[in-house]
Design brief:
There is one protein chain. With about 90 residues, the protein is of the alpha+beta class. It has one domain. It has three helices and six strands, in the order H-H-E-E-E-E-E-E-H. Strand 3 and strand 4 form a beta hairpin. The termini are far apart.
Length: about 90
Protein backbone atom coordinates (compact mmCIF):
# COMPACT_ATOMS: atom_id res chain seq x y z
CA UNK A 1 0.00 0.00 0.00
CA UNK A 2 1.33 3.43 -0.92
CA UNK A 3 0.40 5.88 1.85
CA UNK A 4 1.66 8.94 -0.06
CA UNK A 5 -0.48 8.04 -3.11
CA UNK A 6 -3.50 7.34 -0.91
CA UNK A 7 -3.18 10.78 0.68
CA UNK A 8 -2.79 12.47 -2.73
CA UNK A 9 -5.80 10.58 -4.13
CA UNK A 10 -7.91 11.20 -0.98
CA UNK A 11 -8.67 7.50 -0.61
CA UNK A 12 -10.16 7.99 2.86
CA UNK A 13 -13.08 9.89 1.30
CA UNK A 14 -13.43 7.51 -1.69
CA UNK A 15 -13.98 4.43 0.45
CA UNK A 16 -17.29 5.83 1.73
CA UNK A 17 -19.21 5.39 -1.56
CA UNK A 18 -19.38 2.33 -3.83
CA UNK A 19 -18.08 2.82 -7.36
CA UNK A 20 -14.99 3.32 -9.49
CA UNK A 21 -12.64 6.27 -9.15
CA UNK A 22 -9.92 7.13 -11.67
CA UNK A 23 -6.96 9.05 -10.29
CA UNK A 24 -4.24 9.89 -12.81
CA UNK A 25 -0.70 11.06 -12.16
CA UNK A 26 0.81 11.94 -15.51
CA UNK A 27 0.32 9.06 -17.98
CA UNK A 28 -0.17 6.44 -15.28
CA UNK A 29 -2.85 6.14 -12.67
CA UNK A 30 -4.95 4.02 -10.38
CA UNK A 31 -8.54 2.95 -10.65
CA UNK A 32 -9.97 2.49 -7.18
CA UNK A 33 -12.90 0.10 -6.89
CA UNK A 34 -15.00 0.45 -3.76
CA UNK A 35 -17.63 -2.05 -2.70
CA UNK A 36 -19.27 -2.07 0.72
CA UNK A 37 -16.38 -0.34 2.48
CA UNK A 38 -13.66 -2.42 0.78
CA UNK A 39 -11.21 -0.83 -1.65
CA UNK A 40 -8.96 -2.41 -4.27
CA UNK A 41 -6.56 -0.82 -6.74
CA UNK A 42 -6.13 -1.42 -10.44
CA UNK A 43 -3.13 0.09 -12.24
CA UNK A 44 -3.72 1.84 -15.54
CA UNK A 45 -2.04 4.17 -18.02
CA UNK A 46 -2.99 6.33 -20.97
CA UNK A 47 -2.72 4.49 -24.23
CA UNK A 48 -0.37 5.68 -26.93
CA UNK A 49 -2.79 4.35 -29.56
CA UNK A 50 -5.74 6.39 -30.80
CA UNK A 51 -8.17 3.44 -30.64
CA UNK A 52 -7.84 3.04 -26.86
CA UNK A 53 -8.34 5.53 -24.02
CA UNK A 54 -6.55 3.74 -21.20
CA UNK A 55 -4.85 0.41 -20.64
CA UNK A 56 -6.04 -1.41 -17.53
CA UNK A 57 -3.76 -3.96 -15.85
CA UNK A 58 -6.34 -6.26 -14.29
CA UNK A 59 -3.87 -9.12 -13.70
CA UNK A 60 -2.74 -7.27 -10.56
CA UNK A 61 -6.26 -7.28 -9.15
CA UNK A 62 -5.72 -9.84 -6.40
CA UNK A 63 -6.66 -8.28 -3.08
CA UNK A 64 -8.70 -5.68 -1.27
CA UNK A 65 -6.20 -3.28 0.29
CA UNK A 66 -8.54 -1.44 2.67
CA UNK A 67 -9.79 -1.59 5.34
CA UNK A 68 -7.54 -4.66 5.56
CA UNK A 69 -5.73 -6.86 3.06
CA UNK A 70 -7.99 -9.69 1.95
CA UNK A 71 -7.87 -11.85 -1.15
CA UNK A 72 -10.50 -10.95 -3.72
CA UNK A 73 -12.78 -13.89 -4.40
CA UNK A 74 -12.68 -15.02 -8.05
CA UNK A 75 -16.36 -14.08 -8.56
CA UNK A 76 -15.75 -10.57 -7.17
CA UNK A 77 -12.72 -10.18 -9.45
CA UNK A 78 -14.76 -11.17 -12.51
CA UNK A 79 -17.53 -8.75 -11.51
CA UNK A 80 -15.08 -5.85 -11.10
CA UNK A 81 -13.46 -6.54 -14.48
CA UNK A 82 -16.84 -6.84 -16.23
CA UNK A 83 -17.98 -3.51 -14.74
CA UNK A 84 -14.86 -1.82 -16.11
CA UNK A 85 -15.79 -2.79 -19.65
CA UNK A 86 -17.97 -0.08 -21.12
Amino acid sequence: MNIKRHLRDKVDSLIKTNGFYLKMNGRSGTIYSVKDGKLCEIDCEMSGVKEFDIIIYSEGLLEWVLPEKLLIHQDERKEIIECLKF
